[in-house]
Amino acid sequence: MTSAARLHYQTIPVTPFQQNCSIVWCEQTMEAAVIDPGGDLPRIEAAVQALGVDLRQIWLTHAHIDHAGGTAELARRRGLPIVGPNEGDQFWIDGLAEQGRMFGFAAAEPFVPTRWLHDGDTVQVGQCVLNVRHCPGHTPGHVVFHSPQAERAFVGDVLFAGSIGRTDFPRGNHAQLLASIRERLWPMGDETVFIPGHGPESTFGEERRHNPFVHD
């Protein structure tokens, strides 16, 4: 069991979409993972160096270009395993180059994750274990990483402060997204702070009270 103090993170907005890429690490071992390296790899790698952490893994919440665009290059350059998302996002991975052209991103390459993730799985960095919840709706293969000990959840584009993820992309599903939030995020607890894919952090309790899309 790890204590809350052992999991640390730093969030770095990347790409023209200002996507929240997070570096998470274990205080004891200084082993780290990067969540959603969508682009601007020099900025991410400079942050890794400044933090003095040992980058060991890439974790993906989903495979939209602003979250996954830099994944293949970073994995290849540094010999890192790619963990996640769920298989439901394979078609988004296959289309990364096209996504890049469509949105004016630098060339993005498709890849094959080292490990697909499923609801109830865990991921581990150093001595810190995070739970995986499959939260489809924004994309069919979207996953969320939750540390009960640290009361933190990295939720990608499922939920934002005051808003929710878009569901008008291919294979998005509005009802499914609402169910993911209510059935899989809310049980993590009102005090849990979530790090969204864009914008500021908030708590699940705050969103349950005030978010117009999902309030109680």
Report on this model:
This protein is an alpha+beta fold and 216 residues long. It has a single domain (4-210), classed as Metallo-beta-lactamase, Chain A, CATH 3.60.15.10. 25% of the residues lie in helices and 28% in strands. The protein has seven helices and 13 strands. The protein has helices spanning 41-51, 65-68, 71-78, 90-94, 96-103, 174-185, 204-210; strands at residues 7-14, 19-26, 31-35, 54-59, 82-83, 122-125, 128-134, 143-147, 152-156, 159-160, 163-164, 193-196, 202-203. The strands form three sheets. Strands 6-7-8-9-12-13 form a six-stranded mixed β-sheet. Strands 1-2-3-4-5 form a five-stranded mixed β-sheet. A hairpin with a 2-residue loop joins strand 6 and strand 7. The longest helix is centred in the C-terminal third of the chain and has 12 residues, at 174-185. It is globular, with a radius of gyration of 16 Å. The protein starts with 6 loop residues before the first strand and ends in a 6-residue tail after the last helix. Residues 18-198 form the Metallo-beta-lactamase domain. Its cofactor is Zn(2+). Residues 197-216 are annotated as: Disordered.
Describe what is shown at a glance.
By secondary structure, the protein is α+β, with helices and mostly antiparallel strands. 25% of the residues lie in helices and 28% in strands. The protein has helices spanning 41-51, 65-68, 71-78, 90-94, 96-103, 174-185, 204-210, and strands at 7-14, 19-26, 31-35, 54-59, 82-83, 122-125, 128-134, 143-147, 152-156, 159-160, 163-164, 193-196, 202-203.
